[in-house]
Amino acid sequence: MKFLELAHLYEKLENTSSYIAMREILSDFFKKTQKEELENAAYLTLGQIASQYADVNLGMADKMAVKAIAMAGGENEKEVLQQFKKLGDIGKTAEKHAGKGTLTVKTVFETLHKIAQAEGGQSRDKKIKLLAGLLSQASPLEARYLARIVLGDLRLGVGDKTILDALATAYAHKEARKELEHAYNICPDIGIIARTLAHGGINSIKKIGVEVGVPIQSMLCQRVKNIEEIEHKIGYPVIVEEKYDGERVQVHKGKKIKLYSRRLEDITLQFPDIVQAIKKAVKGNCVLDSEVMPVDAKGNLLPFQILMQRRRKYDIQEYIKKVPVALFVFDVLYVNGKSLIREKYSKRYAILKRIVKQTGQIKLALQKTCKDSDCIEDLFNKTVEHGGEGVVIKNLHGPYDAGARGWNWVKWKPEYVKGLRDTFDLVVVGAYHGKGRRAGTYGALLCAVYDAKKDKFLTFCKLGSGFKDKELFALLNKFKKITHKPARLEIAKTIMPDVWFDPRFVVEVTGAEITKSPNHTAGYALRFPRFLRWREKKPEQATTLKEILGF
Ligand code: AMP
Q1: d(CA 241, CA 233)
Q2: Fewer CB within 10 Å: N-end or C-end of the chain?
Q3: Which atom of ligand 1 is the closest one to the Cα of 242?
Q4: Is the beta carbon of 241 within 6 A of some atom in ligand 1?
């Protein structure tokens, strides 16, 4: 195919604003394209010469392109630079100095790959010469788009979704679009998708599965307004898992180990320590989904910002020591030749447990099975204690929805806890020991309302969030510990605290909502409570059972 044909297509697309019209133009073009050429045409139309995850970069800057244009036309470089500055468009600049011939798509594609491969001391000159060679053979229209491709500035308004739509219209029926998108989510390489469809039709597309070395689009989380929605959206029991605020890492373990980011970039070289740790901890060939987190010497989680220092090309060994990290693995998508993404989560997790041996650096995400919202809240509070980001609630029966934001994963973060209009004054009757960042102080306080009729205290919530670090450690000296349950307290066996307090202090608390709870003797629980301040009140002046029943 002549590159001029592509250039004409790009000119047409550039002058079209309607999405439908663009799709029609593209699908007509793809219908006429020879099967062998479709792959390259699809890449180039996205301004690529390989899949986005292949890490193929042309490595050309504006000035290099200007040099190549000048060299191709035998012109003065300064003048071309002036012109480029005036026009502000490398395409229009190249067009003015183009030759007369035409190029083939094959030549363009192969030469662009040579430009990408040029390395070492002379690479700059080599790249410029290669581009100048192409431009000197190109007609003005070809030069316009060639120069834009080289600088990553094609600006056609065509995204990968448009290409998928056009391919579906050209080579299959409308309904095939869903299958194409699914395949593209598993294999985000427009060239492979175009080639497979052209040669084997939609049946071949359906056979595309997870492969080691081809990163798949990550599954994403939905969100709910309140935690009660979980029952309808997923249905109990669910798996509740700590949500780590680090960087998503897809691990591909075959002969080599590769790590990919959520944007499908190859980030293997940033984490040689994780690669070594995976070798020791993980059995067989597999693809894992995980989050990498910065940790301190004891393995406690550290804030996300610290991890940013590991995003580097140089001094990597030094930063392995400066910023230690651990990998929290939460899913497996492929194992020993078998794609698992259509399997239900409970099965995938059973396999994950079998192939991952937990070590200091490779861990399975903290999780538990929950049958009610009390249990979800418990793990949520634990993650707040860790300095964690919240929880992800997972459907035991859900497949791995590559690239999709569905109800099989639901995230719940502290910032969703908006709060009721009124606050509550609660009596502190006990506490639970802290772990992780809260080791040495309390993880949560057990709080109660006052039942004025019976003159009793009834438990209502566990309060762990809203404290500043300083306030947390001040808690240790605030309360008067007693060795037994306070006499007027009624409590269920399921929530016994580690220490009891004389019911003396009243705390003002806000929360997300009040829901029925079998675990709290008030019969109701305050969901996602947050500390506001201490009140100068007697325990009997705390919020009463009658008041909360009125909510
Ligand atoms: P968000 O970025 O807030 O939409 O939340 C989704 C992200 O949470 C995912 O892309 C993961 O990077 C991250 N994440 C952390 N822990 C987990 C987990 N246990 N399960 C799934 N995703 C998690």
Answers
A1: 17
A2: C
A3: 19
A4: yes
Its sign, for the CA torsion 435, 438, 442, 447, is negative
Please give the Cα distance from 97 to 94 (Å, whole number). Answer: 5
Q: Quick check: 388 pLDDT over 80?
A: no
- The whole-angstrom separation of Cα 549 and Cα 330 is 40
Is the CB of 291 inside a 6 Å radius of any atom of ligand 1? yes
- 258-307 pLDDT, tens per residue? 999 988 999 999 999 999 999 999 999 999 999 999 999 888 889 888 99
Structure tokens at 107: 């030549």
411 lines ligand 1 (CB under 6 A): yes
Q: How far is the CA of 243 from the centre of ligand 1 (A)?
A: 6
Cβ–ligand 1 distance for 331 under 6 Å, the answer: no
What's this model's pTM, rounded to 2 decimal places? 0.78
The residue annotated as part of the active site, out of 92, 100, 161, 243, is 243
Residue 446 tokens read as 């057990």
- pLDDT digit string, tens, across residues 62-84: 999 999 999 998 999 999 999 99
Rounded-to-integer distance, Cα 15 and Cα 308, Å: 41
Bond before 414 cis per omega within 30 degrees: no
* Ligand 1 and 293: CB distance under 6 A: no
Distance from C-alpha of 147 to C-alpha of 90, rounded to nearest angstrom: 6
**pLDDT over 90 at 436, yes or no:** no
pLDDT tens digit sequence for 179-238: 999 999 999 999 999 999 999 999 999 999 999 999 999 998 988 877 888 999 999 999
Convert the pLDDT of each residue in 457-494 to its tens digit.
999 999 998 898 888 889 999 998 888 999 889 999 99
Could you give the domains of the chain?
A: 220-417 (3.30.470.30), 424-549 (2.40.50.140)
d(CA 355, CA 116): 38
245 Cα to the center of ligand 1, angstroms: 7
Could you say which DSSP state residue 512 is in? S
Residue 386: pLDDT over 80? no
Q: Give CA separation, 393 vs 49, 95, 148, 249, 373, in Å.
A: 39, 55, 45, 19, 11
**Whether residue 85 lies in the annotated active site:** no
C-alpha span between 90 and 144 (Å, rounded): 7
3-class SS of residue 539: helix
How far is Cα 197 from Cα 207, in angstroms, rounded to an integer? 11
